[in-house]
Amino acid sequence: MAAIDLTAAPFNLDDEAVAWVHETRDRLSPRDKLAQLFVLLSREAPDEALQAIRAFKPGGITRIFSPDLAEEIGLMRQIDSAGPVPMTVSADLEGSRMSLPFGTEVPNPLGLAAVDDVEATTAISTLMAEEARAVGLNWSFTPVVDINKAFQSAIVGTRSYGDDVDRIERHALAQIKAFQAKGVAATVKHWPGEGYDDRDQHLVTTVNPLSLAEWEKTFGRLYRAAINAGVMSVMSAHIAFPGFVRELDPDAGADAYRPATQSAVLNQTLLRERLGFNGLIVSDATPMAGFGDWGPRSETIPQCVISGCDVILFSDDPNADLMYLVKAVADGRLSQERVDEAVTRVLALKAALGLHKADRPEPALTNAEVIMARADSKATAAAVTARVPTLVKDVANLLPLSPTRHKRVLIFSTGAVQPFAPVPLPLSLPDLLRQEGFEITEFTPDMQVNAKDFDLVLYLLAEETLLTRQRIFLNWKGLTGNVFGAMKRYWHDVPTLMVSLGFPYYLHDAPRVPTYVNAYGSNEDMQAAVVECLMGRKPFEGKSPVDAFCGSEQGKY
Predict the structure, then answer these.
(1) Cα–Cα separations (whole angstroms), residue 464 to 62, 94, 157
(2) H and E: helices and strands count for the chain
(3) How distant is the alpha carbon of residue 63 from its chain centre?
(4) Model pTM above 0.85
(5) Which residues have a Cβ under 8 Å from the Cβ of 250 and sit 6 or more positions away?
(6) Which of 76, 410, 500, 557 could make an SS bond with 363 (beta carbons 3.0 to 4.6 A apart)?
(7) Is 284 strand, coil or helix?
(8) Tens of pLDDT, residues 514-557
(9) Does residue 88 sit in helix, strand or coil?
(10) Maximum Cα–Cα distance for the chain, whole Å?
């Protein structure tokens, strides 16, 4: 087995912890070693989830928490005894609609980038980590260090800190430091760098199109900074980087477009050897089409580990995937040395998180309830959220709104579009405006609109980063109900305002809308913050962390 210095960064283990790693690895059965390489998605009811965990005994789970805190704490208190080694519990702590259902609502990364205050990002990240630890979470697949360059990318969207490398580095390093100081391992993603391809790796292997020199100035800089800061894990994604592959082999052919999750060149040669990363490499979710595009799972699952991923993320059929690894070991494709190396890093992460200690505190309901109810956390989040809304343009000098001047309001809205919700979720912003004294009419497809009946038209959009959408765009027909409504524009007859509670690039589809606001997230606190700004009681403090005009002057007028 290749020597791994577990006393060095990012694990920084003492002699006792190093001994635990080696002793634990060596006592595991061959089957249990391979199971340690899996992190499974857990979204069932707690009793059913525990049964599945006990049956497979994975290295860890990614838990999709229900709103029932007591039941979730009950599950967390039992999982460590469900297998031969304590388990990691992970999540995508990305804020906004990705916040814990019983936790404090916080802005997403793009919202924090609009505030652009490292102290604010540190404060938000600290409270996120404290709440996560209180419910047993110890590993987050954040921060996202992708770069918003392809504005039509639905998958980067609101998850990154914008399009400026300096800004991304500041905030990503702040989150890494805050998370890991509170016992939550951080993960930088999506290796080797997303944001220049407007497609979604849930649907296709995407491509980082940069030359190696360009990459070094952008993603190379960001990943080196994160590694130097001690980030514990890197998420290898279903993203190809032909620029680097062809530096080594100009005749690489199809291999130039091999996703990182299948590429020893990207994981081993570039990440481990050139960038010096000594931590854990976790794959992105393997049910994605960007992974499955490359071949059958009987080949891609073993190749994922062979290529340098220490953890296989998610599986629709864990037992089948485990057998693919067993067969790969048996026929020599996957060496036992490589398996032991991966298991060593999995166990080292657990030891770095203190999971090897018999006296570590268990999640407790009373403590979690206290942590979740802290008034200072809610005040901190509300104060930062209030600084997020960004006035992109107001060429008509419409704002602030007033129920005397804009009494009758017609709202066209998508609702809050969510990846796993079958229908859009209702927004509270219309009711908040009713409470301000406005007469609100919410458009329905059977409505005949007469512009003279209204004093304000409000387009209210709420699509944050979405999975498997491929594109987010202003769907005029969906918004207005039919092809004729899609062609109507009211802003020459009625004052008109467009507010995005998510995707920041709708000016590409509505460049002539006279007043446009970006708020990046659609959680309840953000909707309330937007109303405060629209009414003029709070200033619009946010500064756009992306080019909201989408590279065109058309939207500025």
Answers:
(1) 21, 11, 7
(2) 21, 16
(3) 14
(4) yes
(5) none
(6) 76
(7) strand
(8) 999 999 999 999 999 999 999 999 999 999 999 999 999 999 99
(9) strand
(10) 78
